[in-house]
Amino acid sequence: MATQTTAVPGRVTFPQVAIALQTLALFFQAVTAGMLLSSSLGAVLHDAGSKVMYGASMLYVLAAILAWRPGGGSPRPILYASGFLVLASVQVALGIAHVPSLHVPLGILMFGLSVLALAQVLSTHLSKRTGTRP
Predict the structure, then answer these.
(1) pLDDT tens for residues 23-78?
(2) Could you give the CA distance from residue 12 to residue 35 in angstroms, rounded to a whole number?
(3) Number of Cβ within a 10 Å radius of residue 64
(4) 28 contacts: CB under 8 Å, gap ≥ 6
(5) In this structure, what DSSP letter does residue 75 have?
(6) What is the Cα 130 distance to its own chain's centre?
(7) What pTM did the predictor assign?
(8) CA distance from start to end of the chain
(9) CA–CA separation, 65 vs 90, rounded Å?
(10) Fewer CB near the terminus (10 Å): N or C of the chain?
(11) Is the pLDDT of residue 9 over 60?
């Protein structure tokens, strides 16, 4: 017998935390990319941040799977999270290969997509909390 679980309105969920962490990690990467232009410390921070960003992308996939499986909801967030992990993999490969002409625009795209995903999650969260439609 399967039971359907739902998030308690007003509570922060694991997927919300995961997408927020991913967005924050991507913002950190943008800041440290700018630091690369003026400081050797920027390279160290950008390298460390890339590992955190990749880990945050994997965490987002895990959170999407864990939120879908017990609750019986749509698997669509898993597709989004998995697609983002693919983009993160390409981003890391381009960074290692030193291809800034593709690495920088892809980073901007990833940050924008992550902000949109975070905005969608937060608007859904707020609408559930206030009882309005998103």
Answers:
(1) 999 999 999 999 998 888 999 999 999 999 999 999 999 999 998 877 677 789 89
(2) 33
(3) 24
(4) 45, 49, 52, 53
(5) S
(6) 25
(7) 0.83
(8) 32
(9) 22
(10) N
(11) no
Residue with tokens 């799977």: 65
Map tokens 């983002």 to a residue: 84
Q: Which amino acid is at 15?
A: P
87: nearest Cα among 76, 103, 101, 66: 103
The angle formed by the CA atoms of residues 109, 110 and 113, to the nearest 5 degrees, is 85
Question: How would you label 3-38 residue by residue, b for 16+ Cβ within 10 Å and e otherwise?
Answer: eeeebeeeeeeebbebbbbbbebbebbbebbebeee
The three-state secondary structure class of 45 is helix
What is the model's pLDDT at position 10? 66
Model confidence pLDDT, tens digit, residues 83-120 = 999 999 999 999 999 999 999 999 999 999 999 999 99
Q: CA–CA separation, 31 vs 11, rounded Å?
A: 30
> Which residue intervals of the chain are DSSP H helices?
14-35, 40-71, 76-96, 100-130
